[in-house]
Amino acid sequence: MPHVEKGMQVGLFGGSFNPPHAGHVLVADIALRRLALDQIWWMVTPGNPLKNTRELAPLGVRIQNSQDITPDPRIKVTAFEAAYRVRYTADTLALIRARNPGVDFVWIMGADSLRDFHNWERWREIMLTFPVAIIDRPGATLSFLSSLAAKTFDYARIDEADASRLARMKAPAWTFIHGPRSALSSTEIRKQQSVARQG
After folding, report:
1. Where is the Cytidyltransferase-like domain (predicted)?
2. Hey, CA dihedral for 54, 114, 36, 169, is it positive or negative?
3. pTM for this prediction
């Protein structure tokens, strides 16, 4: 795990990053600024239980590609989940909390993930572990109105204007952050790369 000091505000941004792209960097930049974070842990997961792992590039490649596009020193690319053999986000967050007392963490995810969040293993536990920041993504702006997670935890939603205070709040607490959006997607990039190789 990256080094942190007590009192820091740290964002947790996990994904397969297969491949990482400018849209991911935009989410990280928005989170750093709007949530007043000291760091973001860009957590490259070994695999995703909800996705096809056959299309997954090797972990080392995804780590290197992530480092190549994240020049901001506050963004710490890490793949510690592989070392701890953690499979589910709920377990990752429990591990982080146990090993980093005195640090204020926020779980960060794109609005497109919010739509299917209720399919994640122990998703309610995730919402109850750390505050959550949902960053707007193209085509997913209204997901915070329709998703089961948003409806279930509607009482815990805070105003976007208070986003800079989110990390210090006790979970459950979440907000939806609007801002610049990138239409890039890892799935589309992989499709284009496949077509280029075949051509």
Report:
1. 12-191
2. negative
3. 0.87
